[in-house]
Amino acid sequence: MPAAFEKQSYWHDRFASETSFEWLTSSAAFMDVLTPYLQHIPNSAQILHLGSGTSDLQNHLRRWGFLNVTNIDYEPLALERGQQLESNQFGDVRTKYLVVDATRLELEEKFQVAIDKSTADAIACGEEDAVSSMAKGIWRCLDDDGFWFSLSYSAWRFEHVQDLFEVEVISKVPTPRQKPTDPDIFHYCYLLRPRRQFPGQVCRGAQTSS
């Protein structure tokens, strides 16, 4: 049976023992793809890291000088793991961690950048319109000139959200081959820019974690 990635119970059980894991590629490799875009963003920018899980992406962002990073996950254990990873690396915790469902985003801040590392893939395992719900929430919470980076195994992940976003594949990340005869398989790094022909909405009321 496939893993129940759409269920909170799956992640609670998984994070009970898992302390660190990177989906699709390392955070360092992901940051290499994002470098041409992030290097033009001021360190004061608000960044939303969706489905932070047990990734160390927040550490890489902090190392770049980005401290206004909000890491969200709907499983509290994930936030505990993230805080521990940050504390282990820097000796303290300076980025923000919130218990939030990425398909029901209601945040007070407006963000310059949203980033997810295969979170949209996990959400796609749930209800049929789950990725659309995620996209609508991100669209509401992004600045007019903001953008969303998403790393996905799917070449068609965002074909149904192009009414909200201009969608561009900025990198195809090759997966390691086990044998020379194996076919080429890629992961896709997307850049999504919000279209603004729709009336904007202010996001409200996030539940915070300690």
Automatic annotation (TrEMBL):
- What Pfam families does its record include? Methyltransf_11
Entry keyword set = Methyltransferase, Transferase
InterPro entries in UniProt:
Lys/N-term_MeTrsfase_sf (IPR051419), Methyltransf_11 (IPR013216), SAM-dependent_MTases_sf (IPR029063)
Which GO biological process annotations does it have?
A: methylation
Q: Name one GO molecular function term.
A: S-adenosylmethionine-dependent methyltransferase activity
What residues does the Methyltransferase type domain cover? 48-147
Recorded hits in Gene3D superfamilies, A to Z, give: Vaccinia Virus protein VP39
Q: Which family does it belong to?
A: Belongs to the methyltransferase superfamily.
The name this protein goes by in its record: S-adenosyl-L-methionine-dependent methyltransferase
The organism of origin for this protein: Parachaetomium inaequale
